[in-house]
Every structure is written in structure tokens, then in C-alpha cells.
Amino acid sequence: MKGSSDADLVAAVLAGDIEAFSGLVRRYEDTCVRFAVRMLGSRVDADDALQSAFMRAFRGLRSCREPDRFGGWLYQIVVNECRTYASRQRRQELRFTPATDAIERAVAPGSEPEEDADVGGHIENALGMLPADQREAFLLKHVEEMTYDEMAELTGVTVSALKMRVKRACDGLRDLLEGVYNG
Amino acid sequence: MVENYDESAMAKDDEFAERIAARLRVPEQVHPSFEKRLMEKVQAEGPLLYPSRGSSARRWWRTERVFRVAPLTGLALAAGIAGIIAISGIAIGSRISVHSPAAIRAASTAGRDTVQIVRFVFVDPHATSVELVGDFNEWARGSTELGRSGAPGVWAVSVPLSPGRHEYAFIINGSRWVADPLAVKSSDDFGTESSVIRVGTPANSAT
Fold first, then answer.
1. Are B61 and B115 in contact (CB under 8 A)?
2. Are the C-beta atoms of residues A169 and A179 closer than 8 Å to each other?
3. pTM here?
4. Which of B54, B55, B137, B142 is the most buried (most CB within 10 A)?
5. Which of residues 83-142 of B touch A (CB under 8 A)?
6. Which stretches in chain A have pLDDT values below 50?
């Protein structure tokens, strides 16, 4: 199964070998989980969203028009599913910790990522305060490092609208981390 | 405005964003039980969605069943657009019923176990094969092929359908997915359009 292409595995599932779906799961679960965790700010919610997304992919596998691009198709489902979950999350579930020394260190030029284990958590909290559409755009652009064209294809949103969302996300993060970074 | 989001502002944001994003790019892993839990769900409903070749969907057609079906009496035809005509006809009961492609009105007064024969007709002079897929055959490719039906380019098949709402589509030449252009459309989560037909009794016939 390791040597099988995505198209081979998709064809096997559609032919009734549903165990072949586990090959697709193993291949893409770790690729998707980072986005889900960052988007939802909770590993429990991310787990739920990914379970749901993979099941939607399984149920809709016949709609995968380009099986050799299963990964991109799946990622689109994951993004949509996270968007749905994010809209359900109550704001109070996203705890926000005000700027602290840890945040200051996090965004200071020259700081090392492993300097403080709490720093990532503080930034995730700030990220969680953004509207879901801005958070999604920021993550796709700067964390998943997609181009705006790739983001547009994935989300169905225009490039100009995505640029606006990313800009607002940056403005929002800057406000949330006010006084920390004077960029 | 985006128009005012000039290169220098964007570069400044990029620099700021990079410092934030570096923290967020740390890889994550799913819970160790993720795959097991997922595959249990897949196993639970998988056989229904993707039958093994030669089983399930095909077996449904081979299984001897007792249907209470009134005589076939008619066929509804309707013209399509853009050079394609898709016709979903009905032919049940003591009179001919002619409706829009997705509409069906049952003349049968039989009980709820009654199936109704629905004739699907697709017209495409350039088609070399036409298949019908739908929830009634578990969307299984190769289960329901339309045959040439008299006039050139006319393909047809009659299918027994249980009462209720059914979704379907045609697959042309083994690859092109076509929804009935005259039927009510339904899109799944991935934007794929299918058509809707409702099979019912006179009391609950639908569009």
C-alpha cells in the first residue's frame, strides 16, 4: 500500500476495498492536523473536525474527479470542515492571555522559537481572537505557505479578498500584541 | 482597501507575520487512536457506500423480489438544452403521466412497498455509452447502463424505484458526469451537481 499512488488507493476504495482508505488516511493525517489545530485552537476540536472531514471524503470519494490529486481535494474538505467547526465554537472557549513577557520574547527580532514553550500558546490564543476568515487566510498564507493563487483555488475566494483578510489578520494580531512589536 | 495595500506595507506585514508564523509551523500529530477510530466508522458504513464488485448493488438487481407494479403505460419526454436532451419518464398506473423530468406522479394506489418503474432517457448523438448512477444503485459505476433505444442517439433504461426522493446523474462515455438539465438540481458538499426525482403516491407526489 505504501507504494500505491493516491489514484490507486482511491480506485481500490471505490471498487469495494475500503481498507485501502486507511492508506490515504495515514498519508495525509499529519499534513492536515497542523492546520486544524491552529485553526480551531483545540486539539480535541481538531480531532473531531478531521474525523468528520475524512468521513466526508470517504462518503464523497466518487466526487473526487482527479484521484491523483486526492491530497488537495482532501485539504479543501478539511479547510471547509474547520471553517464549520470554527463557526460553532463559542468565543469564550478561546481563552486569550494578555500580552506578557513571553509574547514580547516571541515576536522580538532574533528570538529563538524554542526559547519558551508557552510562547506558542500565547500566540495561538491571539490567533484565536481573530475572525475565522482572517485566521484561515493568515494560516494558509503564512503557516501553510501557500500562494494567493493556491489559496483562491482552495477557498473559492478572490485573491484581492484574501489579501484583505491577511492584512486584517496582521493588523488584528498587531493590535492584540500591542506594544510588543513596532512593525 | 486592498488597493492601498502597497508593497511596502505588505512587506512589513510579511516580516511581522513571519515571526508569528514561525511559532505556528511546529508540526502536529494526530492522536494515536485517530486512524483506528476513523476506520471503525468507515467499516461501519463502508460496505453500503462502496460495495465489493459483484455484491450489494448488483446483487440487488439479481435478487428475486415481489413488486406490486401496475402496467407500464407511458413515457414522459422533455427537451433539454445545449444539444442534450435528458428525459426522465414515468410510466406507472392506469394512465399516462407526463411531467417535467424530475417530477413524478404515481397513479398506483398500492401500498408503500410498491416500487415504480421509472424510465430514464438520455439523448446525445455523440455518446458511445451512457450509465445511470444514483442513490438507488449506490452510485455504483457499471450497475445501470442505458441501451440504445430506437432513434439515433437515444439511450434509455427502466429502473424500479422505491417511493421517496432519489438523486441521480448520467455518466457519458465512461467519464463525463451530467446532471439532468431539466430536473431539480442537488449539489453535494463538493459542488458536484446531481438531479432529483421524487417517487411517490398520488397523495404525496412531488416535483
1. no
2. no
3. 0.56
4. B137
5. 139, 141
6. 90-105, 112-115, 182-183
